[in-house]
Structures are given as structure tokens and as C-alpha cells.
Amino acid sequence: MSRANRGFTLIELLVVISIIALLSSVVLSSLNSARVKSRDAKRQVDMANIWTALNLFYTQYGCLPIPSSTNCAGFTTDSNSGGWDYSSQGGFLTFLTASGVMSQVPVDPINNMTGDGNPAGTYAYRYYCYSPQESNAGLHLGYYSERTGNEVMKNQAIGNSWSDSTYVCR
């Protein structure tokens, strides 16, 4: 048989397939990293929007509701696990929509957290407003970063490590 009529050898085909598989795995891992960064960026934007809405509500009513309380202008928010309000457990920050401050409250892109705390691989937005009688009185608003696994608290921007006591919670 002449050289012109021969096809590729099995070894040549296996080498090409191996190279394609290696390149596709590199591309897929890069895409996954980009997706994680994208979800964290969405969380950051959502927190800024929720923060703005909470400030509008606070300006209008002079307080923020403690979960499962109607002492703040008759509005309440759902109290889920541990008394906290989580985006993954339904009815998140309902007082913002009931008051007309937001048409829809955003939720975490993954939004799969169950219970109090942060089991590995679960994510949700979290809200709590501590009453003035509690030692850490004020607003707590945050989410868990997929890249770092740490909680990102909106109030850290003003130097408070747990809650923002400039807000009155009832």
C-alpha cells in the first residue's frame, strides 16, 4: 500500500484525543472559576440593592422589623431557622415588597442553604435586626462568598464586626 492511501494510525488518533481532552478540561475549570466569580459579583450587587431598599424603608418608617415581629409600623418579615430570615427559606424580607420599596427582593444565585449556620456548599442571603435590648443591637445583613467560604457582612463596610447599631429594630 502506498503512503498516500494510508490513514492515521491508532497512536496518532489517541494522541490527538488526549490533547483535546486535556484542553477541554482546562477550559471547563476556567469556566467554573468564572461562574463562581460571577455569582459572587451578583451577590455583591444584590446586597447593595437590598441595603438601599432597607435604607429607604428605614427613612420612611424609622425602624426595621425584627423577624416575626410587627412592632415596626405593622410590617414583619418571616422568621426562619434560629429567628433569622434567609432567602433560601421563602418569604425573604417580605416587608420590603409589602411596603412598596421593592417590587421583588433578590435571592442568592444558588439559594440552597437550610437551617441556621452555613453548611459547606450552601448559600443564602441572611437578615436579622437585633432589638435595642440585645447586646449586639442593630442590623445584620450578609451572605456567604463562594470563592472564600466566608460570610460577607454588609455592615463591615462601616467598621462594625457584627451588627450596625445605627438602625433601630422593633
Topology (elements, then pairings):
Layout (H helix, E strand, L loop, with lengths): L9 H52 L23 E2 L7 H5 L27 E5 L7 E7 L6 E3 L17
Antiparallel strand pairs: 1-2, 2-3, 3-4
Structure commentary:
The protein is α+β, with helices and mostly antiparallel strands and 170 residues long. Helix content is 34%, strand content 10%. It is built from two helices and four strands; from the N terminus they run H-E-H-E-E-E. The protein has a four-stranded antiparallel β-sheet with strand order 1-2-3-4, with helices on one face. The longest helix has 52 residues. The protein is elongated and about 85 Å long.
Mean pLDDT score: 85
What is the spatial order of strands in the main beta sheet? 1-2-3-4
Strand content: 5-15%
Pattern of helices and strands: HEHEEE
**Which percent range fits the helix content?**
25-40%
Number of helices: 2
- Low-confidence segments, given as residue ranges, are none
Alpha-carbon distance between the termini? 90 Å
Number of strands: 4
The major β-sheet equals: 4 strands, antiparallel
Question: What Rg, in angstroms, do the CA atoms define?
Answer: 24 Å
Structural class by SSE content: alpha+beta
What overall geometry do the principal axes of the alpha carbons give?
elongated
In short:
The protein is an alpha+beta fold and 170 residues long.
What are the defining features of this structure?
single chain; 170 residues; alpha+beta; 4-stranded antiparallel sheet; 2 helices; elongated
